[in-house]
Design goal:
657 residues, 3 domains, Rossmann fold, globular, 6-stranded mixed beta sheet, Ferric Hydroxamate Uptake Protein, Chain A, domain 1
Length: 657
């Protein structure tokens, strides 16, 4: 009996074990069938700041290249949330410049952040900030769920632009204020449309713009001296050397090239004009004489004189040379006599080198250049240049030179392989709208360019390249004179304003300067029409007295729009440069948006206790190019070159059509 009982117990235990093993195996199979949701690490760009992300702790993936100094970092080990997340990760050593995943944890704001240089990144100091963060290796904590999509304080974040799903954040209303029907996107995303220029592959060093490339004298291209002239048949690139030698010739100095009568020139045509004439060997003596005839006709039509247009001539071949400058001949008769005496130099057709020469040497006061008279260059090109013109022409345009091209007898189909820079004329002229380009199929048609050329160079309202980043703006300085600034620091601010002003060309027709000082109230120190010379402006800045009081930046912006920019000239770029050292007591969003909508380009410079989120709202989009923060007044001077560079870069990026 005992044996039976023991046997039964063993059987029960065995059955229990079988059921237990089966159950465990079943649970494992079930677990395998249940797919856990896969965690997707959000990707962000290098310029994303921690303060823009609402999540208190998150894992993100940074791209390569965040070591760039344009991505600002504030602090060491513990970083102000105004810092670039990925830039801080590189500075901390968690990442290198190749990018990767990191864990970010928000912590309390600090009373100060100390800058340091680490891992190729120079972080900056900051007096205090409301929120901080630390960067750790991307090892998630057990039991912690990290977001696959980040929540941003703006619905249009940099990450969203990269395709990441984000959540909009609505700022809670401030007690005691009335909600305005304005969205945060309207405040922050006032964009300036800039056309993207076509970018060509950069030439190798051996093919740089200064390198001369001989123009081959191939079959189908003219020889050094071509005597086959026919008004009947020589009208295109197909009728070149190799035509029937029995064709009747016509002397290029004949009646067909006499100056047309009645060129309609405005009496107030006051320009400083330089002709760049082609003296290359391939042009030949007769074409060179036709070219000189056009110059003589222009001199006659323009009625050269000190009160009107002045004209000089530069000839190019291998190297350019000035025959006479703007003040050498001050009447049409003497100028025509001098043109007749010009002899051909020969060589290649280095147009790019000639444009660089004119930009650097021709338009100077010593050579007769006059302030207020537009600088105009007319380039005559036989066929095509033997060097590149694009970069030299860009520098000329940025120097305020209006470049016109007259091209004669372009490359035939079988010659295009020898053209160094296709579409060279459009890359060189001031604008690509057709106004600055004239083309004739043969040298017999060159005289037809006289009337349109004279009309165009004298249409000073359309000489768009006379305007440069330094001579075409109304600049209004809006200066914080609150009590926190102090007398000594206020003088430092005025020196900063002086240093910026010195960079511009000041006159009634060039850049004009105005200034407003504000506390709780506002005061117009001087308007755009008060002073018209640089010495007078600089003296006026020195005389500005420190006011002292509160800080109402929003009201100051409205005041500047009404008292300064409402009186700006229609053809001037409107620039507001605001300098403040603290948070505004009033709202800046609506006034800032009003400035943006009125076309006022706003630069916001904050010092010490300035609120950086306010600077970004005040500044024109993109804020990284228009808002700056310095920790001390004594460091303001360091930003003068960068502000000037940004002003000019923005100006020069305008479309050329």
């Amino acid at each position: 009996m005992r044996t039976v009982v023991l046997t039964m117990k063993a059987s029960v235990i065995e059955m229990f074990l079988v059921l237990l093993v089966t159950g465990v195996h079943s649970n494992k199979e079930t677990a395998k069938k249940i797919k856990r949701p896969k965690f997707t690490v959000p990707q962000i760009n290098c310029d994303v700041k921690a303060g823009k992300i609402i999540n208190p702790e998150f894992i993100v993936k940074c791209p390569a290249g965040c070591q760039d100094p344009k991505y600002h970092v504030y602090g060491t080990d513990v970083y102000a949330s105004y810092s670039s997340v990925c830039g801080a990760a590189v500075h901390s050593g968690v990442l290198d410049n190749s990018g990767g995943k990191i864990l970010v944890r928000k912590v309390a704001g600090q009373s100060g952040y100390k800058g340091s240089y680490s891992n190729g990144v120079q972080s900056l100091s900051l007096p205090r900030w409301r929120e901080s963060f630390i960067v750790l290796e991307s090892k998630p904590k057990k039991g912690v769920t990290y977001p696959s999509a980040l929540t941003y304080s703006s619905s249009k974040s940099p990450a969203a632009q990269a395709g990441e799903t984000t959540k909009a954040y609505q700022r809670p209303p401030i007690p005691g204020t009335t909600a305005q029907p304005v969205t945060l996107m309207q405040l922050l995303a006032v964009t300036v449309a800039v056309a993207t220029p076509t970018t060509l592959p950069r030439p190798s060093p051996s093919a740089a713009s200064t390198t001369s490339i001989p123009r081959p004298q191939s079959v189908g291209h003219r020889s050094q001296e071509m005597d086959l002239w026919s008004t009947a048949t020589y009208t295109s690139s197909q009728n070149r050397p190799g035509a029937d030698p029995g064709i009747q010739r016509q002397d290029p100095s004949g009646a067909a090239f006499q100056k047309p009568v009645g060129a309609d020139v405005s009496l107030d045509c006051k320009i400083d004009l330089s002709f760049l004439i082609d003296g290359s060997t391939s042009i030949g003596k007769r074409r060179f004489r036709i070219q000189k005839q056009l110059l003589a006709d222009v001199a006659q039509a323009l009625d050269i004189g000190p009160a009107g247009p002045l004209m000089g001539v530069v000839q190019y071949g291998d190297n350019p040379a000035t025959h006479f400058n703007l003040k050498t001949h001050t009447n049409s008769r003497d100028l025509k006599t001098a043109i007749e005496k010009i002899t051909q130099r020969g060589g290649l057709s280095n147009v790019g080198r000639a444009i660089s020469f004119v930009t650097k040497n021709f338009f100077s006061k010593a050579n007769g250049n006059r302030s207020g008279a537009p600088n105009v260059v007319v380039v005559l090109v036989d066929g095509w240049p033997t060097d590149k013109v694009e970069e030299a022409s860009r520098l000329a345009r940025e120097s305020g030179i209006n470049i016109f091209f007259i091209t004669i007898e372009g490359a035939a189909e079988n010659e295009k392989q020898y053209v160094v820079e296709p579409n060279f004329a459009n890359k060189a002229v001031c604008r690509t709208n057709g106004f600055y380009s004239l083309h004739v199929q043969s040298w017999f048609g060159l005289h037809k360019t006289l009337q349109p050329l004279v009309k165009r160079v004298c249409d000073t309202d359309r000489l768009a390249c006379s305007k440069t980043c330094l001579n075409s703006a109304d600049i209004g300085f809006v200066i914080d004179g609150s009590s926190s600034v102090g007398t000594g620091n206020f003088r430092t601010v005025l020196q900063f304003v002086t240093n910026l002003t010195k960079e511009f060309e000041i006159s009634d027709t060039d850049t004009r300067i105005g200034a407003v000082q504000y506390t709780y109230e506002q005061r117009l120190e001087f308007g755009f029409d008060k002073y018209s010379s640089k010495p007078d402006i600089l003296n006026a800045i020195k005389r500005v007295g420190y006011w002292s009081g509160g800080t109402s930046t929003g009201a100051a912006i409205n005041f500047a729009l009404e008292q300064l920019f409402k009186k700006s000239k229609p053809n001037k770029r409107k620039l507001m440069i605001l300098i403040t050292d603290g948070r505004s007591y009033d709202d800046v969003r609506i006034p800032a948006m009003a400035a943006h909508l009125k076309g006022v380009i706003t630069y916001a410079i904050g010092v010490a206790w300035a609120a950086q989120e306010e600077l970004e709202v005040i500044a024109t989009h993109p804020a990284r190019d228009h808002s700056f923060f310095v920790d001390e007044f004594d460091n303001l001077y360091q930003y003068v070159p960068r502000i000037i560079q940004n002003i000019c870069t923005e100006f020069n990026s305008q479309p050329r059509n």
